[in-house]
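Our consortium's second objective concerns turning raw sequence data into structural hypotheses that experimental partners can test. To show how far this objective has progressed, the report includes one record in full. It was chosen at random from the queue rather than selected for favorable results. The single chain below, 487 residues long, was entered without modification.
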Amino acid sequence: MKKVIWTQKAPLSVIALLVLSACSSSSNTPTPQTSQAIDGYIVGGSVFCDGEDAGETTAGGFLTCPARTEIATVRGGMDVGFDDSATSSDMQFIGELKAPGNLGYVTPLSTIAVQMSSDEFGNYDPDLWEESVADLGAVLGSTTLDLSADASQDMNLIRLNAQLQQVMSAFVRSDADYSTAIAALSGVIAARADTGATIDLQGDVAATITTINAALLNNASPLALTATEIDTVATAVQAANIAIATASSPATAAAAAVNAGNNVDNTGVIIDRRDEAVELISGMNSQTSSTAVSIDDFEDSSLAGGVYLTQVGKDLQAVSYDNDVLRFSEDLDELEVTMGFELKSTLAGDTRSLSFYSDEVVLNAMAGDSDSLVITLADGAVFKAMGTDLLGTVTTAEVSIEGEGTFTNAEGRFSVDYGDVMSKLESIGFDDIFSSAGNYEMTLIIGGIALKEKSGSSVVPAERYSITVGARNVNGSGFKGYLSYTH
């Protein structure tokens, strides 16, 4: 059976009534909990309050959770250093940070302390928090460690958070990797706390990375490194951590982490821009036709005669990209990522849009072999969707997949099955936004993984995009293009 939940936007009068009601009872409403996500400030990160979507972090890394939230989580986003007005940057944050909802700061240090305060099933026990923080401080040589202090001003916290993040970068290629690496590091710290031993984050990084790696090997984790990889990455991390240790201010610490950290390459996938890489399939059954276009033409937002360079026929069924646009620098083994798709009108006054995403997409690929890419969306996986029709009515839905692939890979191309998604959503009241002619912006996002882009002979941070699905802003790198339906 399909799992379907749908809602429609309430009329303005109802919203006004709710606002007035809220005002009249504000004295009885518990105060929400405000925190900051900090490595530098993490902006555009997806926020979860006890596992529930809660929007994204804003300038300064701020996030808000309901009162009495036990655990606040921030996944992904962008590290803007300590510029409290910045809302974007080229520095992608790869990871998933956690903290008690009432702590005030969500950082790598708080993430380790939460892990140390949790059982083998990930259940957090607040009664273990103070002991875990004390053990963490002792192992890191900081016996007065205070994780409730301002992690954007306290230089001890700034240095430790940045240095720990550099160590994590040795193993982490995606948001999904982070929890595995944190669990391994936390186990190493707990073991050393038991024996009174310490960890040197700058003098002997190779020993720390080797110990973490042994824990990963013991669990047969694909994140484990070879001896050669350990030697290479330990040298880069040690140089980064020494530079961070000598920083005298938050700004110089952030700059040191960025500059030195550039030598720690955690990019698993590179986007390689190629001609005739995009294929748009439209029509039904025997009438199906396809249009192949270059990425440059697809991304051209200029209009000629009122339409874009890329044009498609009626009944868009799928959008495909040549596997060769993705280059793998290492093996991807059951890597969980977020994939999202959005199609929205660019015509003034035309509100039509459709966006959907899933956090349950799995990638497999072999290093150096684009054709080895396999994309799966398992039975029972869920994608969430939001559509807006010509009248401005917003409908949201959550749909389970039953053996069908919204995001798939076959015959050397990875695809978004727009027609399949549309047929599911039409059954619960969505209007097909391709029901009449229009101009559209189309975005495909891959989130939760480090991506760079090859442009000419240089490799640079990949362009980042955002799509909105209900309360969730889904961020990632990928492709944004423009097309017209003229029939």
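The partners drew two points from this record. Residues 175-195 form the longest helix (21 residues). Residues 43 and 239 are 27 Å apart (CA to CA). Both points have been shared with the crystallography group to help prioritize constructs.
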